[in-house]
């Protein structure tokens, strides 16, 4: 059965592809560590807004394109082909990073946080993980929030938090009921950068390079007004899971985009490079690396499309999101590793984007939940009969 997107979606995809090819990918040699300076990022976003491609997935009533997960899939593939296409404080180059719960906030909160974020004027961060295991096991979270009149007082720390050193505000999760914990005892709070009592104490160097230096945060009697509770008290775990499921689905098109670009580079190089009088493309060992990569990319694309379709139907996609997260990130790691092998020494250099793709692919097997944790989650769903 053939599958084809509506013409309007294809036109958007093609416009995004041209922009990536002409404006973003040429910058990779200069900024090969997946890190754009703020002035460069701001200039690119301005150009994107000028061509009407900004906030494509934001609801129409808030000035966005209103595209669902399925329609956004091919667009995210094109964005994902560049090492500079996603992962910035503003979200990605084509969309603001906006907590979905802000759409249901009070008018005053929307005016102060939502609308400036949608315009690209304010950036945000997401703080759930801690130095222990609370990233994968929220029930072990130690950061607390205690009600004091019209305020909540937050104490504790967070770890692995991207963009907190420069973002204008963030969503911070804390335990508000130690007995219930992740079953109704975790709450999400909106925290302004200028709020006293919290700070980013250090940035953490990682294998991902300058583009991936998360923060350690400390909260000491940080007072937050009750109005800054996102959703309802005790529903923070549900909010976090919805956000993470959305991010995990995004690993599908992002991984496919990079893997497809890497595969194309591998095919083209194998048709040019000769060893011992023969093209690499004529050697079975190389052919199998290319073929296995194509098969895995194809499988990832259709798995991701199916999960995106289910998300648009409003169905429970927790198991599918975990499957996409595991399969897509492990696929990308294997494909890029093979393409580096085909390129030999040049693949190991910063002359090509492959080394940056590999470093970030390694990180993607951990962020948003390690593969092993997602396999555990999938096993739980299977034992409950979710697959049958």
CATH superfamily of the largest domain: Butyryl-CoA Dehydrogenase, subunit A, domain 3
Task: Indicate the CATH architecture of the largest domain.
Answer: Up-down Bundle
Strand fraction band?
15-25%
Largest sheet: 4 strands, mixed
Judged by helices, strands and strand pairing, the structural class is alpha+beta
Mean pLDDT: 92
Please tell me what the overall shape is: globular
End-to-end C-alpha gap? 24 Å
Residue share in helix:
40-55%
H and E order: HHHEEEHEEEEEEEEHEEHHHH
Unreliable stretches covering 5 or more consecutive residues: none
Q: Spatial order of the strands in the main sheet?
A: 4-7-8-11
How many distinct beta strands? Answer: 13
Q: Oligomeric status of the shown chains?
A: single chain
Tally of structural domains: 3
Q: Specify Rg, calculated over alpha carbons.
A: 22 Å
CATH topology of the largest domain: Butyryl-CoA Dehydrogenase, subunit A, domain 3
Number of helices: 9
Could you explain how this protein is built, in words?
This protein is of the alpha+beta class and 388 residues long. It folds into 3 domains: 91 residues, Butyryl-Coa Dehydrogenase, subunit A, domain 1, CATH 1.10.540.10; 111 residues, Butyryl-CoA Dehydrogenase, subunit A, domain 2 (Beta Barrel); 146 residues, Butyryl-CoA Dehydrogenase, subunit A, domain 3. Helix content is 44%, strand content 16%. The protein contains 9 helices and 13 strands. The strands form 4 sheets. The protein has a 4-stranded mixed beta sheet. A 4-stranded antiparallel beta sheet has the order 5-6-10-9, with no helix packed on it. Strands 1-2-3 form a 3-stranded antiparallel beta sheet, with no helix packed on it. A hairpin with a 2-residue loop joins strand 12 and strand 13. Helix 5 runs parallel beside helix 7. The mean pLDDT is 92.
């Amino acid at each position: 059965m053939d599958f084809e997107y509506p013409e309007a979606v294809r036109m958007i995809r093609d416009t995004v592809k041209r922009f990536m090819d002409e404006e973003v990918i040429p910058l990779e040699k200069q900024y090969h560590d997946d890190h754009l300076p703020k002035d460069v990022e701001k200039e690119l976003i301005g150009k994107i807004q000028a061509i009407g491609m900004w906030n494509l997935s934001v609801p129409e009533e808030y000035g966005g394109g209103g595209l669902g997960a399925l329609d956004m899939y091919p667009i995210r593939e094109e964005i994902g082909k560049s090492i500079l296409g996603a992962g910035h404080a503003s979200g990605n180059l084509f969309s603001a990073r906006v907590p979905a719960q802000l759409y249901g906030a009070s008018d005053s909160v929307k005016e102060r946080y939502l609308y400036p974020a949608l315009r690209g004027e304010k950036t945000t961060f997401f703080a759930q993980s801690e130095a222990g295991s609370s990233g994968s096991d929220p029930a072990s979270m130690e950061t607390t929030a205690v009600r004091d009149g019209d305020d909540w007082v937050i104490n504790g720390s967070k770890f692995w938090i991207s963009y907190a050193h420069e973002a204008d505000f963030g969503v911070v999760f804390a335990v508000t009921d130690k007995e219930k914990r992740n079953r109704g005892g975790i709450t999400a709070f909106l925290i302004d950068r200028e709020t006293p009592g919290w700070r980013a104490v250090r940035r953490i160097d990682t294998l991902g390079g300058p583009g991936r230096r998360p923060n350690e945060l400390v909260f000491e009697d940080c007072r937050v007004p009750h109005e800054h509770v996102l959703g309802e008290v005790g529903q923070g775990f549900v909010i976090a899971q919805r956000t993470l499921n959305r991010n995990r689905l995004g690993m599908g098109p992002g991984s496919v985009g990079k893997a497809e670009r890497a595969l194309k580079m591998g095919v083209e190089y194998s048709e040019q490079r000769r060893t011992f009088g023969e093209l690499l493309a004529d050697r079975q060992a190389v052919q199998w690396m290319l073929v296995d990569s194509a098969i895995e990319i194809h499988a990832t694309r259709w798995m991701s499309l199916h999960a995106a379709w289910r998300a648009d139907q409003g169905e429970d996609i927790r198991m599918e999101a975990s499957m996409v997260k595991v399969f897509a990130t492990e696929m990308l790691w294997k494909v890029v590793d093979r393409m580096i092998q085909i390129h030999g020494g040049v693949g190991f250099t910063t002359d090509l984007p492959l080394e940056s793709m590999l470093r970030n692919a390694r990180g993607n097997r951990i962020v948003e939940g390690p593969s092993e944790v997602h396999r555990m989650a999938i096993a739980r769903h299977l034992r409950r009969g979710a697959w049958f």
